[in-house]
Write the structure tokens for this entry.
Amino acid sequence: MSQTTIPRAAVRGTASGVIFMAFFGTLWAGIGIRGMQGFELPVLITLSLLIGVVLFICAIALIKSSSQLSNEVIKEDRDRWRKKNRWFGIIFSLEGLLIAIAAFICVSTNHLNLFVPVMALIVGAHFFPLASLFQVPIYYITGTLLCLLATIIMLTFPVKIIISDHQIMAWWVSLGFGSALILWGTGVIVCLKGFRLLSIAQHGDENSKVSTRL
């Protein structure tokens, strides 16, 4: 009886995606908190860190649980994963380069307020090739939401608002917390997918052992 074997690398690749979302989601929340310009509530800082830590712990649990899975992959799969990792490095490096260029241009032209929304557009755009590369459809939604969020905020929100004689960076706050929620939400979905893969793999191993005994 043939069955699909889910290798350890597949589950750990999913865990890596969760770590990515946890880390960068928390960074975006930090941008939102920074934009409050002194109105930072301790509960927001604590909650942001807590969400990031919980997602990180879930990813580590996935990695630890996957250690019992087979690490055997055929040469074609191994070559395919190497190619995917190479392209991931290229996409990630290009994203960093574009963000650095955007920062330089915004600072040079004295339009630093544009940097955060432009960065959100770049981050959102980089999810589209990743969705195709790793065959993760949710990344298309993540990229679309990030780009839409940045565009809508630039077109409809004021750059800054004044509350009780206190200036708040409205773009930073809305984009920071909005992007954080999108990335954390993606992290939760990817994490659930990872545990589903793990469950399928474990049940497959159990069925294999039963078939062998019979």
Remarks:
- The radius of gyration is 21 Å.
- Residues 206-214 have pLDDT under 50 and may be disordered.
- Helices lie at 8-35, 42-65, 75-108, 115-134, 138-156, 170-213.
